[in-house]
Amino acid sequence: MSPLHHLYLHIPFCHRVCPYCSFYKHTPGGTDMGAFVQAVLRELELHQQRLEIRPKTIYFGGGTPTALSETHLGTLLTGLRERLDCSGLEEFGMEANPKTVGASKARLLRDLGVTRISLGVQAWDEPTLKLLGRDHAPDEAKETYAILRDAGIPAVNVDLMFSIPGQSLAVWEEGLRQTIGLQSDHVSCYNLTYEEDTEFLNKLKSGMLDTDTDRDADHFRSTMDLLEAAGFEHYEISNYAKPGKRSIHNQAYWRGADYLGLGPSATSTHERVRWKNVSDTARYIELAKEGRLPAVESEELDDRAWLIERIALELRLVEGMAEDRVADSQKRELEMLQGEGLLLVEGGRVRLTREGKAVSDRIAEMLIPDA
Predict the structure, then answer these.
(1) Measured between alpha carbons, how far is 133 from 131 in angstroms, rounded to an integer?
(2) Residues 217 and 323 in one domain
């Protein structure tokens, strides 16, 4: 078996559950956090009995990883390093929410080797934050950003969301200018989508919220204009980086690298087999105590499923995808998209133009061959 070089840990705890988020998450409630940390480390040990794991990247997502106390974060991060050969580690990333990171915790993360923090700001104005159900104020986000910088975290990313109902173009652009003023290393800008099993989707269906493709496009184009003018490279549809500050971990996903996921609901992919862990924290802990892997779903990716993912993800990258990914049956669509100025085909690569980036999902669908 080939070694796994990318490790994801899902920490499902949130002090408040945001109404737009579809990831598995819940408030800590009565969860035994010490038992949870030991369960994650035990799952890693169980995988090590059959897999070679030599991480180049580690990423903590959620949920809110920084909702864990300093004691539990220390135990978990130290436990990982004790169990893994981290000599080849290139990036150690973690998601954080404002109000969950103070100066002491930030220094702890730095001392334990975290090299990248993605700060979930989402918006810089009070009305949008309120609609999104966020529990922080704009000034608190700025304070947390300063804490991370003062602690010496090597790279700090700001996560933002756009095309939110009631969010005007002027409000969005002002938020981008505030982000630029922070001198962030990286900015992730996500178009609001309405996901299954979320409060936002229910509100959309009831007419309380709306979608607007013109608003989507206006906000997206403005994002490209302002961030590129400020020196950011638009290297993936939703991601902008200063030179040398791209996310190594996320690039591995987009380029199709195998990865191991630990924690409740975490997904893994290895040699075209994909499995998902149980989405139940209490059950996850029980299985770990019993010495059993928590996977509850598994599938083998056939050639078509693999190709669909490669087209959908690689097209999002600035370098595009290999031209030979396009089946003969779709060459007519490829030529048509070129003619419309949405694609470039050069040097054996298919890349989105500036206009094509705004409709990347539609373009990917057109290049996927029929079953």
Answers:
(1) 5
(2) no
